[in-house]
Amino acid sequence: MNAFGKTDVGLMRTINQDSIFVSTKPVGKLPNLFIVADGMGGHKAGDVASRVAIEKFVKYACTTHMTDPANILDAGIMSINKEIYDMANSNRDYSGMGTTFVAAVIAEGHVYIANVGDSRLYYIGKDIQQITRDHSLVEDMVRMGLLEKEEARTHYKKNVITKAIGVAEDKTATPDIFEIEIDNGDKLLLCSDGLTNMVIDYDINKIIRKSESIEDAVRTLINTANENGGKDNISAILISAEYTENQDSLLSEQ
């Protein structure tokens, strides 16, 4: 398995509120772990929310006695939601902060996925397929037939999300959990909306297939998002399920 992640501030923001985590090695009971988090909540709080969410989730994964990846993802996210909510309510500088969260674990040919918010996971096999469902106002409008999928990308309320970690103490942060199979040679892409709002799925797929390496693909995706406007922070993790005996690679740029 090879993986590469990168996060970029974009062209319009001064602070990068995205955070990523990339590990092809075990994290507690998890055989590997990949996370993209897109923070929100003002000039001081967004980057804190995404960074702390990842730090606390990794700590949870390293200390839990659970072994099932789906259960760890579900319970871990609910745990960090409470911690970030408490932080936001105990410090005025952090008031209103929250973060999206999309995470993936690969185990024995299966991928376990959790998401809260509008950061996404795509499966790139014979074609590109969005596995996660955005927790956003425009996604709800698409499902109700009030908006076309392509219109959602440019809708003036495209950034309004309906779920986030840390914004409420109740179960509004309950993640969607998915389990899919992955074939040798296929790829997974985790990304923030700074990529998907700037680059359509067709072009994402084309860039990944034409690139000579996953590192080249990620850098090209981010460069393309910036060339198309770079209106938000941009994060992407690309994972290739190409297994060779005793060989994993891990690369990330922040």
- Helix/strand-derived category reads alpha+beta
What's the number of extended β-strand segments? 12
Number of helices: 7
Identify the overall geometry: globular
Largest sheet: 6 strands, mixed
- Determine and state the CATH class: Alpha Beta
Topology:
Elements: E1 2-8, E2 18-23, E3 33-40, H1 42-63, H2 69-90, E4 98-99, E5 101-107, E6 110-116, E7 120-124, E8 128-130, H3 137-143, H4 149-152, E9 176-181, E10 187-191, H5 193-196, H6 201-210, H7 214-227, E11 234-240, E12 249-253
Parallel strand pairs: 1-12
Antiparallel strand pairs: 1-11, 2-3, 3-4, 3-5, 5-6, 6-9, 7-8, 7-10, 10-11
Helix pairs in contact: 1-2, 6-7
What does this structure look like?
With 254 residues, this protein is an alpha+beta fold. The chain has one domain: PPM-type phosphatase domain (Phosphatase 2c, domain 1, 4-Layer Sandwich), CATH 3.60.40. It has 7 helices and 12 strands. The chain has helices at 42-63, 69-90, 137-143, 149-152, 193-196, 201-210, 214-227; strands at residues 2-8, 18-23, 33-40, 98-99, 101-107, 110-116, 120-124, 128-130, 176-181, 187-191, 234-240, 249-253. Helix 1 (42-63) runs antiparallel to helix 2. The longest helix is centred in the first third of the chain and has 22 residues, at 42-63.
